[in-house]
Amino acid sequence: MVFHAVIPARFLSLTAHLVLNIMLFWSREPNVLSCIPVTAGTDSQEYSTKDTQLLVALSLTLAFIVAELTGFLTGLSMFTALPSIFSIAAHVSASIVIALFTVREWSCDSYWYIFGFCSIPAFL
After folding, report:
1. Is the pTM for the entire model greater than 0.85?
2. What sign has the CA pseudo-torsion 82, 88, 93, 94?
3. What DSSP line would sit under 41-94, residue for residue?
4. CA-CA distance, 60 to 94, in Å (whole number)?
5. Rounded Cα gap, residues 3 and 59, in angstroms
């Protein structure tokens, strides 16, 4: 297999997923507000619970991306063909869905599906 195209694509997809995850980490309030009833404010217990849940999911995603990026940059998984292609597909899919998640202000509970389908399989 020709790696001159796979290696940069994997690096760019990992980096895009990392950047979008950090962006969502800092601007998660609209997504948390879409999880709670309209009558509940930002100082309610329900807001704190949902914010913590989303923060845990984002932190786990960040840890998985950093671990995979470390393995990639040290060369442990750089020259494996099938896992590289799978990683590219998973991280590009995650980047697209996280962008939609942020822009359309989806419910914070739906982030766990993004995490489960895009971050965990790519890490394994």
Report:
1. yes
2. positive
3. -TTSHHHHHHHHHHHHHHHHHHHHHHHHHHHHHTTSSTT-HHHHHHHHHHHHHH
4. 14
5. 31
